[in-house]
Amino acid sequence: MIEEKEKRGLTISLCIPTLNEEKTIGKEVVLFKSELVDRYPLLDEIAVIDSGSTDRTIEVAASFGASVYLSADILPQMGFKRGKGENLWKAIYQLQGDIIVYVDADIKNIHPRFVYGLVAPLIYRPEIKYVKAFYDRPLALSKEIRPSGGGRVTEILVRPLFSLFFPELTAIIQPLSGEYAVRREILERIPFPVGYGVETSHLIDVYDGWGIEAFAQTDLDKRVHRHQATRDLGKMSFGILRTFLKRLKSKGIIKDLPELTPFLRQFQAREDHYEQIIHEIVEEERPPMIEVPEYRARRGLE
Amino acid sequence: MSANLVETDNFEQIRDRVRKLPFELEKYRELLLANVIMLGEIPAPTFHEQERIHLLEQRFNECGLQNCSIDEKGNGAAIIPGKRGDTTILLTAHADTPFPASLDHTLTLEPDRIVGPGIADNSLGIAVLATLPTMLEGLGIRLSSDILLMGAVKSLNEGNQEGLRFFLSNAERPITAALAVEGVQLGRLNYRSRASLGGEIACVADNAHEEVSALDVLNQIIYRLRKIHLPQESETRLILGYIEGGVTYKTPARKARLKFQLSSDSDQTIIDITEKIDSVIHELSKEYRVNIDFNIIARTRYGGLDPQHFLVLQARRVLTTLGIHPGSNAYSSVISGFVENEIPAMCVGITTGENLNYPDERIDISPIMKGVAQLIGLLLSIDGGCCAGHQ
User: Is residue B388 part of a domain?
Assistant: First the structure.
């Protein structure tokens, strides 16, 4: 794989977006650096882009040899927005690779395959633009059906929406997985929601621009991560739905959409009464990086 | 043999080299930690170490070692060729851990420690084997002797060091000396083995005919075992380590099981007491009309190096040079396999740690390179001839 990468003159950057991930970031950095930089030089760059952690994430990542950037320090003139999508977008400016691999920082069972499994289709198949991870680890294969392994938000929200409006995208087994590798030429041309909707919007925009043929999927076997509470999944679903509806409108699929509120209302029970909690979830969007003058200057674009 | 005989020009050279090693080894820290994580996250309960050994073997192959192979018991071995290669030093670590494959083997890496099942016993030890070839090559250290690296399977508990015993009794080349690597504790210096017997007593009561609880029978067995005289002159000890039995509080237990260890400074004492245990079981079996089985699950022999052996003295010097305080306990069951094959051997630990054999087992990162430096110092000492003619 490395020979092929060098033959094609490709460079690969790994971006790990973080916010308070001191428990898992050290292991990710050590494994990727040792196995995929020192032992097998597949990666040209490992960068942690942090949203302002208040724990030891930055210290731990740096102590194990990662380049650490504060999201707020990248393109400071464009301001700082809190959200994973912001870090992913700023990585396009900060990192040098022709391919950028994004891997979440909260994976407990991290392994080099999380990177080499994602970049392999991009190295060997020039027509592939965007590689998405999925996770499937059957203990025994029989003729019986088994679940595809998608999370609750995938199965309850995203897959029904794709089925209704973008049926071809239902081929993506786990559309919300946070692990994917993408060619720069694609990344710099798509907008980035800064919050929960970034993965969903990527799929819609890449599909819209380059077709379903641009996608590949890799089975990364198993992913062990934090279990999220249902209430948090509600917030995630709200953000995704806002992004999704915005895409439908911008693509002319639906027209008369009312102004969408950024407020999600949830209930919680306390003793003998219910109380309402209101979350403000703003799904701001960053423009395609290629439209940012500083980026064009940095990359030497006309 | 007096200690000052060891103070040779040869050791002074080794001492100068060893002093610098912890600093020089720091650049291999990430490489070692990555190997610890990748090997340690593969479950390897005793008798099921294959996947871990395969990764070890892959590492040996990547380092370009010679004779990379997995033997019929499942041990993984390879050779770092020496300049002359006319003698062989065995460096071994057991690959198995006491945790079932069903337990989550995810390790957590923190800036100053690693936490997770089996990390100390013995994922770190096996990772040192996997990383040492790269370290030695990078440091420009090539011994005259061949170094035979061997990840041993079927070591713990009922495994009874089956892998190591098989390897030693079938080794094609004579082994000058052996070093066994354990994750913890840094400073341990074990070079002798006590005589011991690991036993399991299983009691099965047939409740269809008698309302006898297997727990009552086991209670009687324990009472009678405690009545057996244990000679103090040979420091004989009986440890009752594990007990289980029954399924509910409502009915007499049909099955009960006890595991124990008998240890002594005399092989004959173990034999004598084993006969007495046999008698106890025979009598109680008749008295209660139940089946009682007595199985031997592990055995070690008394022996090992004399405290004044060159290797022991040299090892103390190496540890002291690195600022490691050598522990006073000379005994470990790990040494028994070598005693049986008359191979001078020593067991050392790589770092400090705690919660051994619990799922939140942990090791400290900062002392690790000192532990590895100690290992290289011992290899240099053995290669320099400190085991020649002094078994």
Answer: no
Distance CA A184, CA A89 (A): 11
Is the Cα dihedral A15, A17, A22, A28 positive or negative? negative
- Decide if pLDDT at B390 tops 90: no
In this structure, the dihedral spanned by the alpha carbons of residues B247, B249, B253 and B256, taken in order and rounded to 10 degrees, is: 70
Q: Do B31 and A24 touch (CB under 8 A)?
A: no
What the block records as the tokens of B147 is 């170094």
Chain A residues close to B37, C-beta within 8 Å: 27, 30-31
Structure confidence at residue B388 (pLDDT) = 64
Does residue B183 carry a pLDDT above 70?
yes
3-state secondary structure of B85: coil
User: Phi/psi at B382 (nearest 5 deg)?
Assistant: -65, -40
Does B117 lie in the same domain as B86? yes
Please state the ipTM of this predicted complex: 0.76
Average pLDDT of span A197-209: 95
d(C-alpha A160, C-alpha B87), whole Å: 69
> Given an 8 Å threshold on Cβ–Cβ distance, is B34 in contact with A35?
yes
- Say how many domains are in chain B: 2
CA A142 to chain centre: 32
Q: Which domain holds residue B154?
A: 3-193+302-383
- Based on the structure, what is the number of domains in chain A? 1
| Mean per-residue pLDDT, B367-387 | 93
One domain, residues B130 and B204? no
Which comes out higher in pLDDT, residue B276 or A272? B276
Structure tokens, A199:
């993965």
**Mean pLDDT of chain A, nearest integer:** 90
Cβ contact B77:B67 at 8 Å:
yes
- Length of chain B, in residues: 391
- Residues in a beta bridge with B333: none
Report residue B242 CA to chain centroid gap. 20
**Position B29: which residue type?**
R
CA distance to partner chain B, nearest, from residue A51 (Å): 20
**Residue B8 pLDDT:** 47
